[in-house]
Amino acid sequence: MWRVNTRAALLLAALSTPLAWAQDPAAFDPQIRNNTLAVNPAETLALAGNSSRGTLLAYDLRAGKLLRELPGFVTPRNIVFSPDGERFYVSDSSKGVVERWHAGSWTREASLAIGPGAFGTALNRDGSRLYVNNQAAGSLTVVNLPQWRVEKVLTGFAQPRQGIKVSPDGGTVFVTNFLGDKITLVDAAKLEACAEVGGFDKLRAISVSGDGRSLFAANSGADTLSWVDVPSRTVIKTVKVGQEPYGAALRPDGRFLYSGNLKSNSLTVVSLPAFKAVGEITGFSGPRQAISFSRDSAKAWVLNEDLGIAEVDLARKAIVRVLAPAAG
């Protein structure tokens, strides 16, 4: 069932020329909506996008203002920065590509074909590999970034969307399957699936603990977060949060987990290791999984549905300012 699709990999490599997507196609999967937020390692720049909008917004986090709009997308799905912050990668499911951008000059450097449906992305720690979900093809594409080529395409997934994480040691890739409500574990050395975890309800975003032994997942169908014991591949606890949680964001110090509750317009604060809801942060507008943290775990940036960014003081459990998008 799980195999490398060599023919597909060759086709995608052939499509990776600049002429492959010379003209933007019509939106491929507009019925599936999501947003994305990425903060650079220096915590000076944030990039925000929504799959219904053909531009990305770049914010100056120090000045608290919009810097510019980056055009040329159709349905942007996910954004990740390189470890040094010099570049960022954007997946677009309608264009069927991952694009490499230079953050200093705001230029699109290259485009690599993944196929229509390119969705969630995750980098390994050293930035040498990018893993790309394809929700339409039911596949995981492994991109060799230094060589800028498709290394392998793994098939057998069921609508893998935005939820994808790499373990801190780089050894395991966790891929969510929206259909079937399960998480597939992929051995990063062998590049093959090695296990599955089920028991979710409209599975959304996931997070992985620093030691790689715990995984946390949002269940938007049950209004809960799940705690998965990775070694035993089992859900060991659930906790009730707000309505339609999409986020399951673990802050860097590992002490608290935050759900992004789409319908409650809030974040539920879950303490660890007790795994209990201990508070609610309100004042958001349609928060989903797009939540980023400062390295010192003092603040969070949460994307609102209008692509404004709420900056949160986590100790006070309060929004301290909102970075607003341009009018209109």
Automatic annotation (TrEMBL):
Gene3D superfamilies per UniProt: YVTN repeat-like/Quinoprotein amine dehydrogenase (2.130.10.10)
Membrane-spanning residues: none
InterPro entries referenced in this protein's UniProt entry, alphabetically: Haem_d1_sf (IPR011048), Host-pathogen_enzymatic-act (IPR051200), Lactonase_7-beta_prop (IPR019405), WD40/YVTN_repeat-like_dom_sf (IPR015943), YVTN_b-propeller_repeat (IPR011964)
Signal peptide segment: 1-22
Keywords annotated in UniProt: Signal
Protein origin, superkingdom: Bacteria
Record-given protein name: Beta-propeller fold lactonase family protein
Organism per entry: Chromobacterium haemolyticum
Pfam families the record matches: Lactonase
Keyword Oxidoreductase: no
